[in-house]
Input
Amino acid sequence: MNEQNEIDEVLSKVESFLLFQKELEVPIYLEKISDEAQTKFDSSFIDKQLSVFDEPFLKANDLIKLDALINSCQKCSLGKSRIKFVFGVGDRDADIVMVGEAPGADEDAQGEPFVGRAGKLLNELLREIGLEREEVYICNILKCRPPGNRDPLPEEVEKCEPYLLKQFSLLKPKIIVALGRIAGNTLLKSRETLSNLRREVYNYYGIPLFVTFHPAAILRNPNWKSNILDDLKKMKNYYDELVGY
Ligand code: URA
Output
């Protein structure tokens, strides 16, 4: 077999594999995102994922209506223990969405994500890459505070994640940034270390997804500040290229 035939054969196998994945409707590819994938967000993958649920919140056509339809949620026990439901905050036309894990005590008290010490650091980090808090959208995987700030339980994620997907479907972000290993692994349905998660840009339902440190981790270990800044700068450069700055 000559070299061209070998190349054709490999390409044909890759094509069959990709068509097979498409048939299975596998929406998340744990691989470096390709140039062609840097297209505008097409919410149909997320909407298809959500279509298995038959609930009123799916009909919301903007974030304010969505908030109103879900903020009295009692689907898990956190509905009883929360002070405030923490929907999300920021520019509703934002291209960049930052996703944390779950509200802490300050967020629970104020009903806004990332308002405590980790939030102040997040604002500072955003400013260092040329962004104001108000220019991005900030939300969490869980909308209610887990007691004692424990990690989210799988059943809590299962109930709450559809709300986040609906937020994405309405926001149509150009980039998502998962803050911390738990947010990253939850979105990607993986069980990777943060070091591994930070290595790639992922294709999350057609949206480039970056994973970096949780700001609270930087408060615990300030030596990592240059690492999170490197990640955020990489994300910002990627964004600038994407939108043609
Ligand atoms: N940590 C998070 O993950 N989210 C917040 O909103 C606050 C702290």
About this structure: The pocket of uracil is lined by residues 100-104, 107, 113-114, 118, 140, 216 (CB under 6 Å). The beta strands are 28-29, 89-90, 96-100, 137-140, 175-179, 202-204, 207-212. The chain has eleven helices and seven strands.
